[in-house]
Protein backbone atom coordinates (compact mmCIF):
# COMPACT_ATOMS: atom_id res chain seq x y z
CA UNK A 1 0.00 0.00 0.00
CA UNK A 2 1.63 3.18 -1.17
CA UNK A 3 1.11 6.86 -0.48
CA UNK A 4 -1.38 8.44 -2.89
CA UNK A 5 -2.87 11.88 -3.46
CA UNK A 6 -5.49 11.36 -0.74
CA UNK A 7 -2.77 10.53 1.81
CA UNK A 8 -0.76 13.64 0.86
CA UNK A 9 -3.94 15.70 1.14
CA UNK A 10 -4.34 14.42 4.72
CA UNK A 11 -0.76 15.43 5.49
CA UNK A 12 -1.12 18.93 4.05
CA UNK A 13 -4.41 19.39 5.95
CA UNK A 14 -2.80 18.30 9.22
CA UNK A 15 0.18 20.61 8.63
CA UNK A 16 -2.23 23.49 7.98
CA UNK A 17 -4.19 22.75 11.17
CA UNK A 18 -0.97 22.58 13.20
CA UNK A 19 0.41 25.82 11.77
CA UNK A 20 -2.86 27.66 12.40
CA UNK A 21 -3.09 26.26 15.95
CA UNK A 22 0.51 27.36 16.62
CA UNK A 23 0.41 30.71 14.85
CA UNK A 24 1.04 32.60 18.11
CA UNK A 25 3.94 30.33 19.06
CA UNK A 26 5.65 30.79 15.67
CA UNK A 27 5.12 34.54 15.80
CA UNK A 28 6.47 34.89 19.32
CA UNK A 29 9.57 32.83 18.43
CA UNK A 30 10.01 35.09 15.39
CA UNK A 31 9.58 38.31 17.34
CA UNK A 32 12.49 37.32 19.57
CA UNK A 33 14.98 37.06 16.69
CA UNK A 34 13.19 38.07 13.48
CA UNK A 35 10.35 40.29 12.39
CA UNK A 36 7.36 38.66 14.07
CA UNK A 37 5.59 37.54 10.92
CA UNK A 38 6.34 33.81 10.58
CA UNK A 39 3.14 32.61 12.25
CA UNK A 40 0.89 35.00 10.36
CA UNK A 41 2.57 34.39 7.00
CA UNK A 42 2.50 30.58 7.33
CA UNK A 43 -1.09 30.52 8.61
CA UNK A 44 -2.23 32.76 5.75
CA UNK A 45 -0.41 30.57 3.22
CA UNK A 46 -1.64 27.22 4.54
CA UNK A 47 -5.25 28.46 4.76
CA UNK A 48 -4.97 29.47 1.11
CA UNK A 49 -3.50 26.04 0.27
CA UNK A 50 -6.40 24.21 1.90
CA UNK A 51 -8.96 26.46 0.18
CA UNK A 52 -7.31 25.81 -3.21
CA UNK A 53 -7.17 22.04 -2.66
CA UNK A 54 -10.83 21.96 -1.61
CA UNK A 55 -11.96 24.02 -4.57
CA UNK A 56 -10.06 21.96 -7.13
CA UNK A 57 -8.74 18.64 -5.71
CA UNK A 58 -5.72 17.46 -7.73
CA UNK A 59 -5.85 13.80 -8.80
CA UNK A 60 -2.18 12.81 -8.62
CA UNK A 61 0.55 13.22 -6.00
CA UNK A 62 2.63 15.43 -8.30
CA UNK A 63 -0.32 17.69 -9.16
CA UNK A 64 -1.20 18.06 -5.48
CA UNK A 65 2.34 18.84 -4.37
CA UNK A 66 2.76 21.37 -7.20
CA UNK A 67 -0.51 23.05 -6.27
CA UNK A 68 0.66 23.37 -2.65
CA UNK A 69 4.03 24.81 -3.70
CA UNK A 70 2.62 27.34 -6.14
CA UNK A 71 0.00 28.54 -3.64
CA UNK A 72 2.62 29.03 -0.91
CA UNK A 73 4.87 30.98 -3.27
CA UNK A 74 2.06 33.31 -4.29
CA UNK A 75 0.54 33.92 -0.85
CA UNK A 76 3.23 33.82 1.84
CA UNK A 77 5.87 36.39 0.79
CA UNK A 78 8.95 36.93 2.92
CA UNK A 79 11.50 34.12 2.93
CA UNK A 80 9.14 31.34 4.03
CA UNK A 81 7.07 31.47 0.83
CA UNK A 82 9.92 30.66 -1.56
CA UNK A 83 11.46 28.13 0.85
CA UNK A 84 8.34 26.08 1.63
CA UNK A 85 7.08 26.59 -1.93
CA UNK A 86 10.31 25.23 -3.37
CA UNK A 87 10.18 22.28 -0.96
CA UNK A 88 6.80 21.16 -2.34
CA UNK A 89 7.67 21.92 -5.98
CA UNK A 90 10.83 19.79 -5.79
CA UNK A 91 8.83 16.99 -4.14
CA UNK A 92 6.41 17.17 -7.08
CA UNK A 93 9.27 16.89 -9.56
CA UNK A 94 10.70 13.89 -7.68
CA UNK A 95 7.33 12.10 -7.68
CA UNK A 96 6.92 12.37 -11.47
CA UNK A 97 3.79 10.69 -12.81
CA UNK A 98 3.55 8.00 -10.11
CA UNK A 99 0.05 7.42 -8.71
CA UNK A 100 1.43 5.99 -5.48
CA UNK A 101 4.76 6.29 -3.67
CA UNK A 102 6.46 3.44 -1.87
CA UNK A 103 8.61 4.03 1.20
CA UNK A 104 11.72 4.71 -0.89
CA UNK A 105 9.71 7.08 -3.10
CA UNK A 106 8.55 9.12 -0.10
CA UNK A 107 12.16 9.33 1.10
CA UNK A 108 13.40 10.42 -2.31
CA UNK A 109 10.70 13.10 -2.52
CA UNK A 110 11.50 14.45 0.96
CA UNK A 111 15.21 14.54 0.12
CA UNK A 112 14.49 16.37 -3.14
CA UNK A 113 12.39 18.89 -1.22
CA UNK A 114 15.16 19.52 1.30
CA UNK A 115 17.70 19.87 -1.55
CA UNK A 116 15.40 22.54 -2.98
CA UNK A 117 15.37 24.43 0.32
CA UNK A 118 19.17 24.40 0.34
CA UNK A 119 19.38 25.54 -3.28
CA UNK A 120 17.00 28.42 -2.59
CA UNK A 121 18.21 29.52 0.84
CA UNK A 122 21.88 28.48 0.61
CA UNK A 123 21.83 27.49 4.27
CA UNK A 124 24.34 25.15 5.82
CA UNK A 125 24.02 22.94 8.87
CA UNK A 126 24.25 25.03 12.04
CA UNK A 127 23.10 28.32 10.47
CA UNK A 128 20.02 28.22 12.74
CA UNK A 129 17.39 27.73 10.03
CA UNK A 130 14.68 25.25 9.00
CA UNK A 131 17.48 23.20 7.40
CA UNK A 132 18.70 22.26 10.90
CA UNK A 133 15.44 20.32 11.41
CA UNK A 134 15.02 19.02 7.84
CA UNK A 135 18.54 17.70 7.23
CA UNK A 136 18.63 15.31 10.22
CA UNK A 137 15.06 14.27 9.40
CA UNK A 138 15.86 12.98 5.92
CA UNK A 139 19.07 11.36 7.18
CA UNK A 140 17.15 9.53 9.91
CA UNK A 141 14.49 8.52 7.39
CA UNK A 142 17.06 6.92 5.12
CA UNK A 143 18.81 5.21 8.04
CA UNK A 144 15.51 3.69 9.19
CA UNK A 145 14.57 2.65 5.67
CA UNK A 146 16.31 -0.71 6.06
CA UNK A 147 13.27 -1.92 7.98
CA UNK A 148 11.08 -1.02 5.02
CA UNK A 149 8.26 0.36 7.14
CA UNK A 150 6.98 3.83 6.23
CA UNK A 151 5.64 4.47 9.73
CA UNK A 152 8.95 3.57 11.32
CA UNK A 153 11.00 5.72 8.92
CA UNK A 154 8.72 8.76 9.34
CA UNK A 155 8.73 8.38 13.12
CA UNK A 156 12.54 8.40 13.09
CA UNK A 157 12.48 11.45 10.82
CA UNK A 158 10.08 13.32 13.12
CA UNK A 159 12.17 12.56 16.20
CA UNK A 160 15.33 13.72 14.43
CA UNK A 161 13.61 16.93 13.27
CA UNK A 162 12.54 17.72 16.84
CA UNK A 163 16.06 17.07 18.12
CA UNK A 164 17.47 19.29 15.38
CA UNK A 165 14.94 22.01 16.21
CA UNK A 166 15.87 21.94 19.90
CA UNK A 167 19.54 22.13 18.96
CA UNK A 168 18.98 25.48 17.20
CA UNK A 169 18.48 27.27 20.54
CA UNK A 170 22.17 27.69 21.47
CA UNK A 171 23.20 28.52 17.88
CA UNK A 172 24.07 31.97 16.54
CA UNK A 173 22.06 32.74 13.41
CA UNK A 174 24.02 33.14 10.18
CA UNK A 175 21.12 33.44 7.74
CA UNK A 176 18.04 35.63 7.45
CA UNK A 177 17.05 38.63 9.50
CA UNK A 178 18.07 36.91 12.76
CA UNK A 179 21.69 37.03 11.59
CA UNK A 180 21.78 40.82 12.13
CA UNK A 181 21.44 40.12 15.87
CA UNK A 182 24.76 38.31 15.95
CA UNK A 183 25.35 36.87 19.43
CA UNK A 184 21.98 38.19 20.57
CA UNK A 185 20.30 35.40 18.52
CA UNK A 186 21.79 32.78 20.87
CA UNK A 187 19.33 31.26 23.35
CA UNK A 188 16.26 31.41 21.09
CA UNK A 189 14.68 28.47 19.26
CA UNK A 190 14.54 29.06 15.51
CA UNK A 191 10.98 29.67 14.22
CA UNK A 192 11.71 28.12 10.80
CA UNK A 193 13.09 24.93 12.35
CA UNK A 194 9.97 24.87 14.51
CA UNK A 195 7.51 25.01 11.59
CA UNK A 196 9.66 22.54 9.62
CA UNK A 197 9.40 20.10 12.53
CA UNK A 198 5.61 20.43 12.37
CA UNK A 199 5.87 19.51 8.69
CA UNK A 200 7.69 16.24 9.40
CA UNK A 201 5.69 15.41 12.54
CA UNK A 202 2.39 15.77 10.67
CA UNK A 203 3.78 13.54 7.89
CA UNK A 204 4.54 10.87 10.51
CA UNK A 205 1.05 11.22 11.93
CA UNK A 206 -0.85 11.06 8.63
CA UNK A 207 1.06 9.40 5.78
CA UNK A 208 1.23 5.77 6.96
CA UNK A 209 -1.98 3.91 6.07
CA UNK A 210 -4.35 4.13 9.04
CA UNK B 1 -0.95 53.22 19.03
CA UNK B 2 -2.87 55.86 17.08
CA UNK B 3 -2.62 55.65 13.28
CA UNK B 4 -4.49 57.16 10.33
CA UNK B 5 -5.87 53.84 9.17
CA UNK B 6 -9.24 52.11 8.91
CA UNK B 7 -8.30 48.46 9.43
CA UNK B 8 -4.72 47.15 9.81
CA UNK B 9 -5.47 44.45 7.22
CA UNK B 10 -6.36 47.05 4.56
CA UNK B 11 -3.47 49.49 4.98
CA UNK B 12 -1.51 48.55 1.85
CA UNK B 13 -4.55 48.15 -0.42
CA UNK B 14 -6.14 51.42 0.66
CA UNK B 15 -2.87 53.34 0.36
CA UNK B 16 -2.52 52.05 -3.21
CA UNK B 17 -6.06 53.26 -3.89
CA UNK B 18 -4.92 56.67 -2.67
CA UNK B 19 -1.92 56.64 -5.01
CA UNK B 20 -4.22 55.81 -7.92
CA UNK B 21 -6.62 58.61 -6.94
CA UNK B 22 -3.88 61.21 -6.49
CA UNK B 23 -1.77 60.38 -9.54
CA UNK B 24 -3.57 59.92 -12.86
CA UNK B 25 -0.13 59.61 -14.51
CA UNK B 26 0.20 56.24 -12.73
CA UNK B 27 -1.87 53.09 -13.18
CA UNK B 28 -2.39 50.74 -10.24
CA UNK B 29 -3.10 47.01 -10.57
CA UNK B 30 -4.94 46.53 -7.29
CA UNK B 31 -5.17 42.73 -7.63
CA UNK B 32 -1.40 42.30 -7.94
CA UNK B 33 -0.53 45.44 -5.93
CA UNK B 34 1.61 46.92 -8.72
CA UNK B 35 2.10 50.63 -9.47
CA UNK B 36 2.79 51.21 -13.20
CA UNK B 37 3.55 54.29 -15.29
CA UNK B 38 0.26 54.85 -17.08
CA UNK B 39 2.02 54.58 -20.44
CA UNK B 40 3.77 51.25 -19.67
CA UNK B 41 5.07 49.34 -21.52
CA UNK B 42 7.30 51.98 -23.09
CA UNK B 43 8.55 50.54 -26.38
CA UNK B 44 12.27 50.39 -27.17
CA UNK B 45 13.43 51.33 -23.67
CA UNK B 46 14.90 49.04 -21.04
CA UNK B 47 12.30 48.79 -18.27
CA UNK B 48 13.05 48.96 -14.54
CA UNK B 49 11.03 47.40 -11.77
CA UNK B 50 11.58 47.24 -8.07
CA UNK B 51 9.52 46.31 -5.09
CA UNK B 52 9.64 45.34 -1.48
CA UNK B 53 7.69 45.42 1.71
CA UNK B 54 5.47 48.46 2.23
CA UNK B 55 6.25 51.03 4.91
CA UNK B 56 9.24 52.69 3.17
CA UNK B 57 7.29 55.23 1.10
CA UNK B 58 7.95 57.00 -1.18
CA UNK B 59 10.17 53.97 -2.02
CA UNK B 60 9.22 52.21 -4.35
CA UNK B 61 5.80 53.18 -5.72
CA UNK B 62 6.54 56.91 -5.37
CA UNK B 63 9.50 56.53 -7.73
CA UNK B 64 7.47 55.23 -10.67
CA UNK B 65 7.47 57.54 -13.68
CA UNK B 66 9.57 58.87 -16.55
CA UNK B 67 13.27 58.84 -15.68
CA UNK B 68 12.97 56.29 -12.89
CA UNK B 69 10.96 53.04 -12.41
CA UNK B 70 8.43 51.60 -14.86
CA UNK B 71 6.67 49.65 -12.10
CA UNK B 72 6.88 48.83 -8.40
CA UNK B 73 5.46 45.82 -6.53
CA UNK B 74 4.12 46.41 -3.03
CA UNK B 75 4.31 43.69 -0.39
CA UNK B 76 2.63 43.66 3.00
CA UNK B 77 4.24 46.02 5.52
CA UNK B 78 7.92 45.00 5.82
CA UNK B 79 7.23 41.71 3.94
CA UNK B 80 8.60 41.04 0.45
CA UNK B 81 6.10 40.88 -2.40
CA UNK B 82 5.65 37.50 -4.11
CA UNK B 83 7.13 36.18 -7.38
CA UNK B 84 3.81 36.25 -9.23
CA UNK B 85 3.51 40.00 -8.56
CA UNK B 86 7.04 40.56 -9.88
CA UNK B 87 6.39 38.33 -12.90
CA UNK B 88 3.21 40.25 -13.75
CA UNK B 89 5.08 43.56 -13.43
CA UNK B 90 7.96 42.25 -15.57
CA UNK B 91 5.57 41.27 -18.36
CA UNK B 92 3.63 44.49 -17.96
CA UNK B 93 6.62 46.80 -18.47
CA UNK B 94 8.72 44.98 -21.06
CA UNK B 95 9.06 47.15 -24.13
CA UNK B 96 11.14 44.62 -26.02
CA UNK B 97 14.57 45.44 -24.57
CA UNK B 98 14.37 43.53 -21.30
CA UNK B 99 13.74 44.36 -17.66
CA UNK B 100 16.08 45.29 -14.80
CA UNK B 101 15.05 44.06 -11.34
CA UNK B 102 16.35 46.31 -8.53
CA UNK B 103 16.40 44.26 -5.33
CA UNK B 104 17.30 45.33 -1.80
CA UNK B 105 19.46 42.74 -0.04
CA UNK B 106 17.07 41.05 2.37
CA UNK B 107 16.65 37.26 2.43
CA UNK B 108 12.97 37.33 1.45
CA UNK B 109 13.30 39.97 -1.26
CA UNK B 110 16.26 38.22 -2.88
CA UNK B 111 14.55 34.81 -2.93
CA UNK B 112 11.24 36.11 -4.27
CA UNK B 113 12.91 38.16 -7.03
CA UNK B 114 15.10 35.14 -7.87
CA UNK B 115 12.02 32.98 -8.35
CA UNK B 116 10.38 35.71 -10.43
CA UNK B 117 13.43 35.85 -12.70
CA UNK B 118 13.36 32.04 -13.07
CA UNK B 119 9.62 32.14 -13.90
CA UNK B 120 10.22 34.94 -16.42
CA UNK B 121 12.90 32.83 -18.10
CA UNK B 122 10.76 29.70 -18.11
CA UNK B 123 7.37 31.14 -19.03
CA UNK B 124 8.03 34.34 -21.02
CA UNK B 125 10.57 35.53 -23.51
CA UNK B 126 11.43 38.56 -21.38
CA UNK B 127 15.10 39.02 -20.57
CA UNK B 128 15.68 39.88 -16.91
CA UNK B 129 18.84 41.06 -15.15
CA UNK B 130 18.86 41.60 -11.38
CA UNK B 131 20.93 44.04 -9.36
CA UNK B 132 21.03 43.69 -5.58
CA UNK B 133 21.76 46.75 -3.41
CA UNK B 134 23.75 46.20 -0.19
CA UNK B 135 25.14 49.50 1.05
CA UNK B 136 24.50 49.46 4.83
CA UNK B 137 27.89 49.66 6.57
CA UNK B 138 26.20 49.04 9.93
CA UNK B 139 26.34 45.31 9.13
CA UNK B 140 29.99 44.60 9.83
CA UNK B 141 30.25 40.84 9.78
CA UNK B 142 28.81 40.27 6.33
CA UNK B 143 30.40 36.82 6.07
CA UNK B 144 28.30 35.43 8.92
CA UNK B 145 25.09 37.31 8.28
CA UNK B 146 22.67 37.63 5.39
CA UNK B 147 25.03 40.36 4.19
CA UNK B 148 24.80 44.12 4.15
CA UNK B 149 21.27 45.47 3.85
CA UNK B 150 20.04 47.50 0.92
CA UNK B 151 19.09 51.01 2.14
CA UNK B 152 19.64 54.59 0.91
CA UNK B 153 21.67 53.68 -2.18
CA UNK B 154 18.56 51.97 -3.57
CA UNK B 155 16.97 55.40 -4.16
CA UNK B 156 20.06 56.58 -6.04
CA UNK B 157 20.24 53.35 -8.11
CA UNK B 158 16.60 53.76 -9.16
CA UNK B 159 17.18 57.37 -10.25
CA UNK B 160 20.50 56.86 -12.04
CA UNK B 161 19.67 53.54 -13.73
CA UNK B 162 16.32 55.03 -14.76
CA UNK B 163 18.14 57.89 -16.47
CA UNK B 164 20.48 55.42 -18.18
CA UNK B 165 17.49 53.54 -19.58
CA UNK B 166 15.94 56.81 -20.75
CA UNK B 167 19.22 57.65 -22.50
CA UNK B 168 18.77 54.54 -24.66
CA UNK B 169 21.35 52.23 -23.08
CA UNK B 170 20.80 48.48 -23.40
CA UNK B 171 19.97 46.15 -20.52
CA UNK B 172 23.56 45.11 -19.80
CA UNK B 173 24.71 48.75 -19.72
CA UNK B 174 21.82 49.84 -17.47
CA UNK B 175 22.63 46.97 -15.09
CA UNK B 176 26.31 47.97 -15.15
CA UNK B 177 25.61 51.53 -14.05
CA UNK B 178 23.23 50.25 -11.34
CA UNK B 179 25.98 47.98 -10.00
CA UNK B 180 28.47 50.84 -10.17
CA UNK B 181 26.23 53.05 -8.04
CA UNK B 182 25.83 50.27 -5.49
CA UNK B 183 29.58 49.61 -5.44
CA UNK B 184 30.43 53.30 -4.94
CA UNK B 185 27.72 54.08 -2.36
CA UNK B 186 27.59 53.52 1.41
CA UNK B 187 24.98 54.26 4.08
CA UNK B 188 24.50 54.29 7.84
CA UNK B 189 21.32 55.01 9.79
CA UNK B 190 20.12 55.72 13.31
CA UNK B 191 16.85 55.78 15.24
CA UNK B 192 15.48 58.01 17.97
CA UNK B 193 12.28 55.98 18.32
CA UNK B 194 10.85 52.68 17.11
CA UNK B 195 8.34 52.18 14.31
CA UNK B 196 5.00 50.43 14.83
CA UNK B 197 3.83 47.87 12.25
CA UNK B 198 0.05 48.44 11.83
CA UNK B 199 -0.82 44.75 12.23
CA UNK B 200 1.31 44.45 15.38
CA UNK B 201 -0.09 47.63 16.94
CA UNK B 202 2.85 48.15 19.28
CA UNK B 203 6.42 49.40 18.80
CA UNK B 204 8.77 46.91 17.12
CA UNK B 205 11.50 47.52 19.71
CA UNK B 206 11.79 49.31 23.04
CA UNK B 207 14.08 52.28 23.07
CA UNK B 208 14.19 54.26 26.32
CA UNK B 209 13.54 58.02 26.07
CA UNK B 210 17.19 58.90 26.67
CA UNK B 211 18.75 56.34 24.30
CA UNK B 212 19.28 56.13 20.55
CA UNK B 213 20.19 53.20 18.28
CA UNK B 214 23.15 53.66 15.94
CA UNK B 215 23.24 51.52 12.80
CA UNK B 216 19.52 50.76 12.65
CA UNK B 217 17.96 49.00 9.64
CA UNK B 218 14.79 50.18 7.92
CA UNK B 219 12.60 47.47 9.51
CA UNK B 220 13.64 48.10 13.09
CA UNK B 221 16.48 45.59 12.83
CA UNK B 222 19.08 46.14 15.54
CA UNK B 223 21.99 48.43 14.90
CA UNK B 224 25.59 48.31 16.00
CA UNK B 225 24.84 49.60 19.45
CA UNK B 226 22.64 51.60 21.75
CA UNK B 227 23.99 54.78 23.26
CA UNK B 228 22.84 57.75 25.32
CA UNK B 229 21.09 60.44 23.28
CA UNK B 230 23.59 63.03 22.03
CA UNK B 231 23.67 66.33 20.10
CA UNK B 232 23.19 66.22 16.32
CA UNK B 233 26.85 67.04 15.67
CA UNK B 234 27.86 63.87 17.52
CA UNK B 235 25.19 61.76 15.81
CA UNK B 236 26.50 62.99 12.45
CA UNK B 237 29.97 61.83 13.43
CA UNK B 238 28.61 58.38 14.41
CA UNK B 239 27.12 58.03 10.92
CA UNK B 240 29.76 59.65 8.72
CA UNK B 241 32.89 58.12 10.26
CA UNK B 242 31.99 54.45 9.58
CA UNK B 243 31.06 55.38 5.99
CA UNK B 244 34.36 57.15 5.37
CA UNK B 245 36.24 54.27 7.01
CA UNK B 246 34.59 51.79 4.63
CA UNK B 247 35.19 53.47 1.26
CA UNK B 248 37.36 56.23 -0.17
CA UNK B 249 35.21 59.26 -0.98
CA UNK B 250 38.05 61.77 -1.51
CA UNK B 251 38.23 61.24 -5.29
CA UNK B 252 38.21 64.21 -7.64
CA UNK B 253 34.65 63.49 -8.78
CA UNK B 254 33.30 64.42 -5.36
CA UNK B 255 30.20 62.90 -3.73
CA UNK B 256 26.47 63.05 -3.67
CA UNK B 257 25.55 63.56 0.01
CA UNK B 258 22.10 62.26 0.94
CA UNK B 259 20.51 62.84 4.35
CA UNK B 260 17.36 60.75 4.58
CA UNK B 261 14.55 61.10 7.09
CA UNK B 262 13.28 57.81 8.52
CA UNK B 263 9.63 58.91 8.51
CA UNK B 264 9.09 60.59 11.88
CA UNK B 265 11.80 63.24 11.81
CA UNK B 266 10.92 66.77 10.56
CA UNK B 267 12.77 68.39 7.64
CA UNK B 268 13.92 71.08 10.08
CA UNK B 269 16.05 68.47 11.83
CA UNK B 270 17.06 66.76 8.58
CA UNK B 271 18.57 70.02 7.26
CA UNK B 272 20.26 70.61 10.61
CA UNK B 273 21.76 67.12 10.26
CA UNK B 274 22.79 67.86 6.67
CA UNK B 275 24.70 70.88 7.91
CA UNK B 276 26.58 68.75 10.45
CA UNK B 277 27.32 66.11 7.80
CA UNK B 278 28.57 68.73 5.32
CA UNK B 279 30.96 70.17 7.92
CA UNK B 280 32.40 66.72 8.65
CA UNK B 281 32.82 65.96 4.95
CA UNK B 282 34.58 69.26 4.38
CA UNK B 283 36.95 68.54 7.23
CA UNK B 284 37.66 65.08 5.79
CA UNK B 285 38.55 66.49 2.38
CA UNK B 286 35.41 65.16 0.71
CA UNK B 287 33.92 67.50 -1.88
CA UNK B 288 30.13 67.55 -2.15
CA UNK B 289 28.90 68.04 -5.72
CA UNK B 290 25.22 67.15 -5.27
CA UNK B 291 22.91 66.83 -2.28
CA UNK B 292 19.58 65.25 -1.46
CA UNK B 293 17.68 65.92 1.78
CA UNK B 294 14.30 64.49 2.71
CA UNK B 295 12.32 61.36 3.55
CA UNK B 296 12.97 59.07 0.56
CA UNK B 297 13.35 55.62 2.16
CA UNK B 298 11.46 55.52 5.42
CA UNK B 299 10.60 53.07 8.15
CA UNK B 300 6.96 53.92 8.90
CA UNK B 301 6.92 56.60 11.65
CA UNK B 302 10.36 55.84 13.03
CA UNK B 303 12.21 59.00 14.02
CA UNK B 304 15.83 59.18 12.95
CA UNK B 305 17.86 59.56 9.80
CA UNK B 306 20.42 57.92 7.58
CA UNK B 307 23.38 59.29 5.67
CA UNK B 308 24.33 57.96 2.22
CA UNK B 309 27.40 58.98 0.25
CA UNK B 310 27.89 58.15 -3.42
CA UNK B 311 31.25 58.70 -5.14
CA UNK B 312 30.45 60.65 -8.31
CA UNK B 313 32.02 61.07 -11.73
CA UNK B 314 30.94 62.79 -14.95
CA UNK B 315 28.78 59.85 -16.04
CA UNK B 316 26.87 59.64 -12.75
CA UNK B 317 26.54 63.42 -12.54
CA UNK B 318 24.93 63.61 -15.96
CA UNK B 319 22.52 60.75 -15.16
CA UNK B 320 21.65 62.23 -11.75
CA UNK B 321 20.82 65.61 -13.32
CA UNK B 322 18.67 64.11 -16.09
CA UNK B 323 14.93 64.89 -15.91
CA UNK B 324 12.74 62.79 -13.62
CA UNK B 325 8.99 62.95 -13.09
CA UNK B 326 7.65 60.79 -10.26
CA UNK B 327 5.51 61.53 -7.17
CA UNK B 328 8.57 61.27 -4.91
CA UNK B 329 11.31 62.87 -7.02
CA UNK B 330 10.82 65.43 -9.75
CA UNK B 331 13.13 67.86 -11.55
CA UNK B 332 14.14 69.06 -14.98
CA UNK B 333 10.65 68.71 -16.41
Work out the helicity level of chain B.
Answer: 25-40%
Q: Which chain pair shows the most residues in contact?
A: A-B, 30 and 31 residues
Total individual domains of chain B: 2
Number of helices of chain B: 8
Order of helices and strands of chain A: HHHHHHHHH
Number of helices of chain A: 9
What is the β-strand count of chain A? 0
What report would you give on this structure?
The complex is a heterodimer of chains A (210) and B (333). Chain A is mainly alpha-helical. Chain A has one domain (5-206): Serine Threonine Protein Phosphatase 5, Tetratricopeptide repeat (Alpha Horseshoe). Helices cover 68% and strands 0% of the residues of chain A. Chain A is built from nine helices and no strands. Chain A has helices spanning 5-21, 23-33, 38-55, 61-75, 80-95, 103-121, 131-144, 150-166, 191-206. The longest helix of chain A has 19 residues, at 103-121. With 333 residues, chain B is an alpha/beta fold. Chain B has two domains: 11-184, 3-Layer(aba) Sandwich (Rossmann fold); 185-320, 2-Layer Sandwich (Hypothetical Protein Tm841, Chain: A,domain 3), CATH 3.30.1180.20. Helices cover 32% and strands 23% of the residues of chain B. In chain B, helix 6 (232-246) crosses helix 7 (267-283). The longest helix of chain B has 17 residues, at 107-123. Chain B is globular, with a radius of gyration of 19 Å. The interface between A and B is medium-sized, with 30 and 31 residues.
